[in-house]
Structures are given as C-alpha cells and as structure tokens.
Prior knowledge:
The structure holds two protein chains of two kinds.
Chain A: E1 5-6, H1 15-37, H2 39-42, H3 53-65, H4 68-78, H5 88-109, H6 130-157, H7 160-168, H8 170-193, H9 208-234, H10 241-268, H11 280-300, H12 308-332, H13 346-369, E2 373-374
Helix pairs in contact in A: 1-13, 3-5, 3-12, 3-13, 4-5, 4-8, 4-9, 5-6, 5-13, 6-7, 6-8, 8-9, 9-10, 9-12, 10-11, 11-12
Chain B: H1 2-12, H2 28-41, H3 46-57, E1 63-68, H4 74-80, H5 87-94, E2 96-100, H6 108-121, E3 127-131, E4 134-135, E5 144-145, E6 148-149, H7 150-159, E7 163-167, H8 168-173, E8 186-187, H9 189-192, E9 198-201, H10 208-221, H11 234-237, H12 241-244, H13 248-253, H14 263-267, H15 285-288, H16 348-380
Parallel strand pairs in B: 1-2, 1-3, 3-7, 7-9
Antiparallel strand pairs in B: 4-8, 5-6
Amino acid sequence: xxxxxxxxxxxxxxxxxxxxxxxxxxxxxxxxxxxxxxxxxxxxxxxxxxxxxxxxxxxxxxxxxxxxxxxxxxxxxxxxxxxxxxxxxxxxxxxxxxxxxxxxxxxxxxxxxxxxxxxxxxxxxxxxxxxxxxxxxxxxxxxxxxxxxxxxxxxxxxxxxxxxxxxxxxxxxxxxxxxxxxxxxxxxxxxxxxxxxxxxxxxxxxxxxxxxxxxxxxxxxxxxxxxxxxxxxxxxxxxxxxxxxxxxxxxxxxxxxxxxxxxxxxxxxxxxxxxxxxxxxxxxxxxxxxxxxxxxxxxxxxxxxxxxxxxxxxxxxxxxxxxxxxxxxxxxxxxxxxxxxxxxxxxxxxxxxxxxxxxxxxxxxxxxxxxxxxxxxxxxxxx
Amino acid sequence: xxxxxxxxxxxxxxxxxxxxxxxxxxxxxxxxxxxxxxxxxxxxxxxxxxxxxxxxxxxxxxxxxxxxxxxxxxxxxxxxxxxxxxxxxxxxxxxxxxxxxxxxxxxxxxxxxxxxxxxxxxxxxxxxxxxxxxxxxxxxxxxxxxxxxxxxxxxxxxxxxxxxxxxxxxxxxxxxxxxxxxxxxxxxxxxxxxxxxxxxxxxxxxxxxxxxxxxxxxxxxxxxxxxxxxxxxxxxxxxxxxxxxxxxxxxxxxxxxxxxxxxxxxxxxxxxxxxxxxxxxxxxxxxxxxxxxxxxxxxxxxxxxxxxxxxxxxxxxxxxxxxxxxxxxxxxxxxxxxxxxxxxxxxxxxxxxxxxxxxxxxxxxxxxxxxxxxxxxxxxx
Lengths: 383, 381
C-alpha cells in the first residue's frame, strides 16, 4: 500500500444509499423468513436444481466480480507493475464485500446451515470433495481480504502499532491473496466437471477449471476498469484512464486467447457442432463470445481504448461476459436427470437483488469512511 | 454336506491334478468341475456332478450313432465350437461316436458297414442322435444315403437304440423344411418312430450345453431328464425367454424399439414391438448365452429380436415382424408417469422483478457511459 490514499469527503446518507438500504432491508425480511420456515418456503430450488440463483449469482458470479483485488495483486506484485497501486485499495474493497457476502449467501443457501462448522473439523473432511476445497478456500480468503484491507481501517483509527504489524506480514497476505483465488475460482469449474453429462457438451470440458480461473481474472480487471472510471466520474475526481489503458492491453489478449482456446477445445472434443444446435446453451455461447470479442476489440485497438466511455463499455462487457458464462454453465447448460425445471421465485430474486444492493451500499460507505481512493491534490467536491 | 465332501474326496482319488489319459490334457479335477457345472445347470445336486464325472470317466462308453437328414450341419458346427475344457475331447471320448456323417474318418461303404456292425454288436445299448428333418412325401425319396431313404435309416437305427435324441429344430418337428408349403413333407424324428420317446433339443442351432447336459444325464442315471409336453428337457426349456431376458425391465416400463436403428433400438430397449418372440418361446438363451464369451452373447442382447427357433409353430412359421402372443402379462397402453415435470415455472411477478432489475442495471450502465462520454468530450474541448 505504498500509494497514499484518502477518504472521500461526502455525506454518508444520500437518496441512492437510502434506496440501496431499503432493498437490503426487504432482502433481510426474506432471509429471516428462510431461516424461520426453511428453503422451500422462500426459494424454488428442488432436487433436480439444488443450486439456484443464490449460489450461481451471489456466490459463483459474486465472487468472480470480487476478483478485482486478486487481479490487481497479480498485476502489481507478480508482474511488478507498481504504477497500478493507486487502483489496489478500491479493487480490494470490491473483493472484500463480493467475497464476504458470497460467504453469507452460502450460509443462507445451505439446507442444514447449523452443520456448517463441520467443514472445518479435519476428522469430518472428505479430501476428495471439490466443495470442501471451495468452502475452506473461500473462508480463508475472506479472512485474508479483511487483513489485506485492514491498513485502511487502522490508518483511519490511528492504530499505527497494529498497522506496522499488519504491514510486516503483508507479503504473506498478498501471496495468499493470489494463491487462494487461483484455487477456488478454478474449483468452481471442477464442480461442473464432476457433474459429467449433466452439463451440455458445449460447456463441459476438462479445461473448465482453467476457463473459470482465467475468466475470473478477466472479470477482476473488468471490474477495476469499470469501477475506476465510474468512481472518478461520479465523485468528480481526476481520471485514472492512463492506468486503465495498460490493464486493457493485458485483459484484451487474455480474452482473445480465452475465446480462441474455447473454440479449439470444442473442435478437439468434436463438440463444435453443438454451438450450431440452436439450443439455449448455444445461444449463451454466442452471446458470451460476442461480448468477449467486443471487449477485446476495444482493449486492443489503440484508437478505441483512448475513449473513456468505450473503455467503460468494454469493462462492463467483460463483467457481463464472465457473469453470463457462469450463469449459463451453472443453469442454462445444466440438464438434470428427470423432468426438473427451475425459475427463481420473487423472494429468491429479492434476496439476490438485496445482496447486490448491500454490496454497493457498503462500498459507497467505506470509501467515505476510510482512506481507499487514490489521494488527490484537487479540492474534494460534493457527491 | 460332509457326506458330499467325503464322496468327492474318494472320487477324486489321490492325484486329482494328473491328466486322465483318455481325455488328453484334461485332469480329473477339471472333469469334476465341469460335471459339477453341468449338474448345476440342470438343477441337480452336487452329488450328481460327481456321479456324472465318474460315468464320463468309465471305460464302458456307450456307442453313438449320429444320423443326418435334411439339415445344414449347424447343430454339429455349434457343438464343435463349445470351448469348455476340451469339450470336443469329452464329447468324442466320453461317448464312442461310431457313426457321424460329417466327423467320421471313413467314408462310403466302409463307414456304413461300421455303423451296421456297431448297431448289431451294441443292440439295445447305443444312443441314436438325429440331426435334420425327415421327408415323408413320395416315400421319403427326398433324402437318401447309401441307397436308403432317411425314413428307413432312422427306423432301422431306432429299433435297437437305448435312447433317441433329436438335435435341432429340424429333427424336433421338421424345422425350416416343414415351413409351408412343406414340399417334401418334412417331419420331426418323433413322427417317424411313433411310440418311442424322442428327447427333443430344438434350437437353430441349439445351445451345445443343453445337448451335452442331456447326454450326461442319460449316461449317469440311465434315463432322460424331466421333459415337458414337447419332450424338451425342462432344465433348458422350462421357462420363457421373456422371463429371464435382460431387456425385460424395458418391457415392464414401456420402453420399446419401434424400428431397427431408431433411438430406442440404439438405447437397448425391449424388442417386443419389432417382432421379438421371447414372450412365447421357451429356452434358456438369456441365462447361458452362446459361444462361451460371457454375458450378452445371444440374439436379443445383440439387438436382433428372438425369432422363436425352439418353438414349433413360431420359428420358421410366424413372420419375423409379427407380434408375439403374450403368455404372461400384456403391456398396458398407458404407463404411470415416471418423469412427471417437477419444479416451479417462472411466475409473472418473478419475471417482472428480474426484467426490472436487469433493466435498471442496463439503464444505469447506459447513463453512466453517456455521462462519461460527455465529460470525455468536455475535457478534451
């Protein structure tokens, strides 16, 4: 955290935060109902679809959107691009809530949530389980994220002694902050491999872990691009576009290799015909490919990537691409045995919307409470 | 049980793993194991297996006269292709095959003379096996050997036989030759020699082990195994193919192949609707298979409907595509649903909420991009 940061001097309560708070409160009502009456009373999940949108949107997509901190740490510390460090704390903050609320969503979604502690008891562990790996890894990563972010809080509180101690182990936290997402983001792909023929051939491949972890990285960078542009614009702060363009070059090439690799994989497995089958899985495949190629074009074209609105659009396209890929792989390309169908219920949707609202609300509150954003010499404006 | 162990130990002798000289490389232990298996197939006790082995090893081998009528030699071929430890050794050494048109080394008058010599010498002791149908029309002139019609040859040999076995569908009731319009008036062996009990081993070809088991039973107990109304051994022809068929669960669940090569056919569904005669044919095909290559080596397993070769009036008579007459239960026209749709559809409220949320997200994104665009231009200006 070499770059100096400052908190945003703006009122905590605005019309936007009030609306977000209201959405979160409605969600809380249904969460209470879920714990009082059970999953069946609130959700539409069934024996064929044990994973609904709570898992797919709140956990699988939510954690990938929270990969900003992971993607930036990789860029700053592994590829030694120190100039990006002004973007580190905001990215970390996004990941902090993405992951913390993903963990909370898992707990809400667990049928017998009171058995949750068994996950950490070694004598109850099944070492061959993909879910065990994801569960332990995400839990540990949430702790690591909070510690990684803690200097911002300690700085505000003025606890310099603790701040020094955390800085002393920061190298370890950053290393863990890169290793852990590699582990569980790839395992989210492995979780589909073990479903075998229940996953459409267009999506089922032994490379799922690689596709999941690399698209999570792309999403992390996409979030940083969109977030940095939005924040600097909304709070009338100096533009970070110079740094964003450098990230865009990396993510552009990554997406290009990703799309090409996916096509080659389909050809090698003889499943390329499936993308012309006219199925729902084929449709999402083409939309994902189109979104990824649009983002690639913007990121790799020197003329286009100079434009801030185009770059913002590319960042949003990358997030949408990664989210759609996850949603499609987990729900659209998933064909359970038997005639099961699934569509989320109103309370189910409300909880997911409320969790997303809470994430945005907490992010907005934290940038106003703690030094997160890159320090600027310009006089702060009202927002 | 203890008695059986003592009996077995005594019968096996001091050196059970030494080859039996008459049987080439076959040891006594192998012979006993084989006979125990045969006894089990026939539903006999373990002790019967020991007695069979002893009978098979006995130097007093009964002579066998094998007559060939209107046939394709498929039954003989099938028998020669059985692989159980030196089966051909067993069948050829266990019995004294004194006359077989295909297998004898001599030919012409020499072979015929030997046959007559054996028939005279062992009168009342030899076993007669007939393969192929017997033409009766026009004095039986449509099948002759050594100047005599097959009718004469069968009657002549049957007169001095201890037992008569008809192998194959042709010998059992006339087989393919007797199919309409039956130009030669072909009939089964039992119609040629009325009054004599003929053990029928129908099949096209029959499973060699059904024949061998019957012969071992005859040798051991001196009488044929339990027979059904068609004089077929009950141990082999006591149950419908339908009862033991591995595709039976598909029949019960209503999953049928409707034509060759369709989705159901490729999935291994029941073949009843494309003419499988399993529901009206008695045989042990699904239980023991063919060719000694393990499970699933019989027509239905390979996707070919049973054509009823062991059943008079079905095989060679009923068209291959005709539906079998169900002797047990008929499939219902409607089955209880096993895959009723489960799960809630998208409610109008949920659809509105999801669409609204997506709309707000897209709208906010679009507004943001527009605003950033304005500032971008403003900044440059």
